[in-house]
Amino acid sequence: MKVTVTVNGTEVGAEVEDRMLLVHFLRDAAGLTATNVGCDTTSCGACTVLLDGESVKSCTVLAAQADGSEVTTVEGLSDANGEMHPVQRAFRQEHGLQCGFCTPGMVMAIVSLLRENPQPTEEQVRAGLEGNLCRCTGYHNIVKAALAAAGTDAG
Amino acid sequence: MIPASFTYTRAGSVKDALDLAAKHGEDAKFLAGGHSLLPLMKLRLAMPEILIDIGRIPALSYIEDRADHVAIGAMTRHHDLETSGLLARELPLLAHAAGQVGDPQVRHRGTIGGAIAHGDPASDLPAVIVALDATLVARGPAGERAIAAGEFFRSLFETALAPDELLTEIRVPKPASPGWSFQKFTKRAIDWAIVGVAVQGSSIALVNMGPAPLRAGATERALAGGASPREAAALAAEGTSPPADNNATAAYREHLARVLVRRALEEAGSRG
C-alpha cells in the first residue's frame, strides 16, 4: 500500500507492505537511522518518536496507521541553523548518555514529557521515563538532563 | 519481529467498520491502538488476515457527562482518560488506573475499548470497570445492545462480543460511595500486574487472579456483614483461580491478593 508520512517536516511517500512497522518505514523508507530498534517488544523505548506531537514506540505502530500523520525523529529536533534542541544540549551538559543506544528514544520521550508538563518534579520525570530502558543504567544523569531542560524552550 | 502478512483496511465510521467486519468474518480483527494486538501478531500468536483499523474514527473518542453516568467512547486513549478533568472529578479510580497502564508511550496509543475487548485478565482496566459496575455498549448487524461489565469477560481473551460486533461505548455510573483505590503489583513499572486490585465503595475486583477479572465476593460479603477491612481482606483469594507463571506461583498470587485487598480497603476507607 502507499503510505505517506511527513517526517521532520518533509513528506515521505513509499509503497510498502501493509505489515511494515513505522520504525522500519523511518529507517528504510525515510533513511533516518537514528531511531533504534531495541527490544522490538514495546518495552525498551529506544524506538520512541513523536507521532502528531506525542511520544509513541514506533515498533508497535504500523506505518499504515501513521499514514497522513506527522512524525518527528531525533534528527528533526535541531533548528534551521543546526543548533541542537534544548533537551539534546541538556544531555550533553549533564552527561546524560553512556553507550548512546537508548539516547534517541530517551530524548524524544523527554521532549514529549516536557510538552505535557513543562515543569516536572524529579518524581514526574522518573515516572515519565517508565517506558524507556537504559542498559548502562545511566538513569540519574538522564533525569538530571530532563530537569535541566525543563523551563527552557524545550517543548 | 514482523507480523505475518495481512491486509490493512481503515474504517472511516462505525458503519464502515461493521460493514468490513461483516464482509470479512472471522478472518478479520479490529485494530484499535494496537498495543495488545500488534505485539501478539509480531510473536505470531495472532495471525488475522485482515486488520480493520478503527483507531481514527473520531466519533468513538469522547468522555461525556450524562447526569447519572459518564459515557466514554471506545477509542478514547488511556492518556485522555488520565488527563480528563471530568474523570478526575467523577471517576478518579478510572482516571488513576488509566495512568498506570503501561507507560506514557503506550498510553498515547492504547484505548479503553481496545483494552476491554482484548479480554486479557492481566490488564488493568477490565477489573476497574467491573468494580465500577460499568455497562458496555456493542453495535453489530442486528443493532445495539448493552452488556454488564460483570457478564462481559468470559475467559482468557474471550468476551461476550461476537466477531461482527464492535464495542462502541463504556457507560460508567457515578459511584454512590466515594472511597476508591487501585493497587498494582509489578516487578517493573511497565509490566502487567502480577496481581491488581480495584476498589470503589464496597465493590472489589481483582486483576490476574483467574482467566477473567473477578469480584472478591467473599471479602465483599464479609464487609457487608460487618467484618473489618483486615478480616475481610483475609478472604480475598477465596473463589479465585490464579495462574502460575515465571513471575509468581498461584500461592504467591493468593498471598498478594490478600495483602493488596487489605491495602486497597484501607486506602479507600481513608478517601471515603
At a glance:
The complex is a heterodimer of chains A (155) and B (272). Chain A has 5 helices and 5 strands; from the N terminus they run E-E-H-E-E-E-H-H-H-H. Helices cover 31% and strands 15% of the residues of chain A.
User: What does the average pLDDT of chain B come to?
Assistant: 97
Please give the count of helices of chain B: 12
Structural class from helices and strands of chain A? Answer: alpha+beta
Overall form of chain A: globular
Seen as an oligomer or otherwise, the chain set is heterodimer
Largest sheet, strands/sense/barrel of chain B: 5 strands, antiparallel
Q: In total, how many beta strands of chain A? A: 5
Our measurement of the CA-to-CA distance between the termini of chain B, rounded to an integer number of angstroms, reads 48 Å
What is the H-and-E element order of chain B? EHEHEEEHHHHHHEEHEEEEEEEHHH
Strand content of chain A: 5-15%
Counting helices, strands and paired strands, the structural category of chain B is alpha+beta
How big a fraction of the residues of chain B is strand? 15-25%
Largest sheet strand order of chain A: 2-1-5-3-4
Morphology of chain B: globular
What gap, in angstroms, lies between the N and C termini of chain A? 34 Å
The strands making up the biggest β-sheet of chain B line up spatially as: 4-5-10-6-7
Q: Which tags fit this structure?
A:
heterodimer; A: 155 residues; alpha+beta; 5-stranded mixed beta sheet; 5 helices; 31% helix; 15% strand; globular; B: 272 residues; 5-stranded antiparallel beta sheet; 4-stranded antiparallel beta sheet; 14 strands
